[in-house]
Amino acid sequence: MQTSFTQVEALLRSFLTRAEFIYPGPFQEADEKLYKLAIEESIRRGINKNHENTKPYFGPILFNAAQYTNTSYGHLSPDLQMIMCILTACLTYIDDAPNHGYIWDDVAKFQHRFIRNEAHPNTVLMACDGLLKEMYEYFGETEANLIVTSAVNVSTAVMFEKLGMKATESSYADFYRDISGAPDLYSVFIFPTNLPISTYIQAIPDLRIIINQVNDVLSFYKEEKAGDNANFISFLAESQQISKVEALQVAADRAIAAHENIMRILKPSKEAVECYQKFNHGYMAYHIYEKRYKLEELGF
To answer: What is the superkingdom listed in this entry's lineage (predicted)?
Structure first.
């Protein structure tokens, strides 16, 4: 069944209204300074700028990571912003492995080499390995554990695409999304490192939903136009035998419910609420105004 983009536009506008998104959002053009510093930091961490297989990393991947960090995590300290930028770029590079056959085998072996402390032939993966091991210098043990396991799972999710199976269980769509999107990592980074994890740990299940489903909802148009079916909305539609627009509505409803739960859970901590609100509005703004999501074609 062909997806009606008129219905998609109406659904997205309703979603943003319910999410209390205010135009214009706190979107910032990619900070050229952060991007240039991220290039320097990547090289310092051993990523070979002149190798053929790192060109995507230093180009649009790192540029978009800088823009994402600026918009969604602009409330972080400069040091943590740089870590977020480099780590996001590394994970995007890993997630994009199916489009770059020359790194597929290295991604498949990433977790094994990470655990055994072995060198990775690919310099981006080697830098990612080292960066993850540094998390314990910035975060508490529990927070760092969540970050590391969440990041490493991304490489496992990439391998699922090789299975070529048909999604028949709706719970699989959630499972796939949780391990492919690193939501625990992005949840922990929202809050200051000096804020006790007990302040926000009970909100993480709903933060997972926000991080996953907002992306699912606002990136759907781009993916549908490209014919990309390896995503949550497509899996959910296939497994529940509903249309993609209906699956999109399910994701939007889940995101709104999660947002309301998060605000309730974090209410005792003014600092936690403020950090979450800055992240959430920036996260939506990033998706709406970033050209790669093509939402300007729908009039956004």
So the answer is: Eukaryota
**Rounded Cα–Cα distance for residues 233 and 243 (Å):** 9
Q: Which of 102, 129, 156 is the last residue of a domain?
A: 156
Nearest to 107 by CA among 188, 166, 162: 162
CA–CA dist 172, 178 (Å, integer): 10
pLDDT at 164 over 80: no
Q: Is 119 in the same domain as 216?
A: no
* Among 40-49, 128-137, 224-233, the least confident range: 224-233
Please count the structural domains in the chain. Answer: 2
Q: Report the CATH number at residue 284.
A: 1.10.600.10
- On whether both 107 and 8 belong to a single domain, the answer is no
Q: With cut-offs at 50, 70 and 90, classify the pLDDT of residue 1.
A: low
Cβ-contact 230, 161 below 8 angstroms: yes
Same domain assignment for residues 107 and 130? yes
186 and 292 in a common domain: yes
- Nearest by Cα to 189 from 235, 241, 242, 151: 151
Q: What pLDDT shows up at residue 171?
A: 84
Q: Whole-model pTM?
A: 0.91
